[in-house]
Specification:
Layout lengths: L7 E5 L5 H13 L4 E5 L6 H10 L7 E7 L4 H6 L6 E6 L7 H8 L8 E2 L4 H16 L3 H19 L5
Parallel strand pairs: 1-2, 1-3, 3-4, 4-5
Helix pairs in contact: 1-5, 5-6
């Protein structure tokens, strides 16, 4: 049985990242994965961000998804303070269209990995799927929900007719 406590922490660097990260939260809900969402910044609220990362496991969080734009290093800052899996979502909010966010998220030193997904809303949805895949190893109900979701997207894709 899946806990009612959040298993996934979804964090974003600013409220302007909410639109992109909403797809992540929506998909976690669709998969019946309890989660929490917060705005935290590695640069503007570093103490709160550190506290979130340090306390996450004790609060029952098992996976953290961190989305940030510009060259913000939110996912890396979180990963430096926890051994939980961290999934980084680079957000395309800067003049560099997210390439700065992608590089700051994916370029981690050995020993402190951040699983990094695509830039933008597609990446945010894939972060939810990746979190579900991690949790499915432990929770049979999440495994079933994930398999059902995958069957659904396969059916939808196979029913697409081009005219």
């Amino acid at each position: 049985m899946v806990s009612e406590k959040p298993l996934v922490g979804v964090i974003m660097g600013s409220i302007s990242d909410r639109e992109v990260m909403q797809g992540c939260s929506d998909l976690l809900s669709e998969l019946s994965i309890p989660h929490e969402a917060k705005v935290l910044s590695a640069h503007r609220t570093p103490d709160l961000t550190r506290e979130f990362a340090v306390s996450a496991a004790d609060r029952g969080i098992e996976v953290i998804i961190a989305g940030a734009g510009w060259a913000a290093h939110l996912a890396g800052a979180i990963a430096g303070h926890t051994t939980l899996p961290v999934i980084g979502v680079p957000i395309d909010s800067s003049p560099l269209n997210g390439m700065d966010a992608l590089l700051s998220t994916v370029q981690m030193p050995p020993g402190i990995p951040v699983a990094t997904v695509a830039v933008g809303s597609g990446g945010a949805k894939n972060a939810a799927v990746l979190a579900a895949q991690i949790l499915a190893l432990k929770y049979p109900s999440i495994d079933q929900n994930l398999k059902s979701y995958r069957r659904g997207i396969t059916e939808k894709a196979s029913q697409t007719v081009l005219t």
